Amino acid sequence: MKELFDIFVRSVFIDNMIFAYFLGMCSYLVISKEVKTAFGLGLAVCFVLAITVPLNYLIDKYLLQEGALSWLSSRMANVDLSYLTLIIFIAVIAGTVQLLEMVTEKFTPGLYLSLGIFLPLIAVNCAILGGSLFMQERHFPTVIHSFSYALGSGIGWLLAIVAFAAIRERLKYADIPKPLEGKGIAYIITGLLGIGFMAFLGI
Amino acid sequence: MKSYLGPLNRDNPILTQTLGVCSALAVTAQLKPAVVMALSVTVVCAISNLIISLIRNTIPPRVRIIVQLLVVSTLVIMVDQVLQATFYDVSKMLSVFVGLIITNCIIMGRLEGFALSHTPGASLVDGLMNGLGYGLVLVVVAIFRELLGSGTLWNHQLIPSSFYEAGYLNNGLMILPPMALILVGGLVWIQQGTRKSSEK
Question: How far is A129 from chain B (nearest CA, A)?
Fold first, then answer.
């Protein structure tokens, strides 16, 4: 239990997707002009990460890794399909996103309306594929661990984009040199936030 | 001709279009991985643009995203295998970021915005130029970070040891990830500033 909590806290603060690895920066920079939309996108990222990472974990463990197919028959024990990782992961993610879009539209129209426009964007969000690839690199012992990691990363991403959007709303009233307005200052603020987050390294 | 050169400066994918920032920042602590990354992205971008442009009339619009993802990920797998076979140390250093070329917004953005509506030849050049524009930013940021952060360039010691004896210290802050963002912010500042003055 403690281990799961450790993974969770670590992925929210220390290995924060945005500040430590810059994953999902593109949508982070573009969709952070308002706190409300930023929150919607953050929720959608959390949601998709928490579903696709455990799914990819199972696929990786039982289909792709070297020797993973040994449950099928002993002849398959030394088949190594790991070079297919990328294409399978991205197919799973794109498929899941499409499925989620349909499911939320049918059963929870309210959620669909608030997430709807962001869901298709998420298939090509680096944070999602990055989550799965980091999960593969870290060799979690069980699927629960990978779920805890995914949830933590998602919440870390949500935290980062909401904090950034809040700063950006305030920024309208700031006096910034003309050429630096908009994107330039956004990069610099993210950099400074990132340095702030490095303080968590000691935990 | 001018529109082809646009991605290098005026329409630079990172500085102006805000695409592909994710991977750009994480691999620039040293020059070597940055150059390898820039080359890989250029190759994938150019070839995927060419392929998508060739089959653009046969893809049904509803499933085009998945088709694009499949084409791109196939290319990325090839690049990844080549890197592992030839530059094993760099490929270890880049770790997941080679895989993340798939979701690099530059590639998807160019496929959506250019290759689907232009001829194969033009798309190939467009992909090549956008890849190079991306590479340019990567290399500039990496030169600053490696030179100021570790005093080396392409793993060669550039700052003489007499400097260190005289009390010169490497700027450790440069190696930390957030500095990449601040450097790119500075580049945007320079680029926007010069553009304003030249248009007046």
Answer: 7
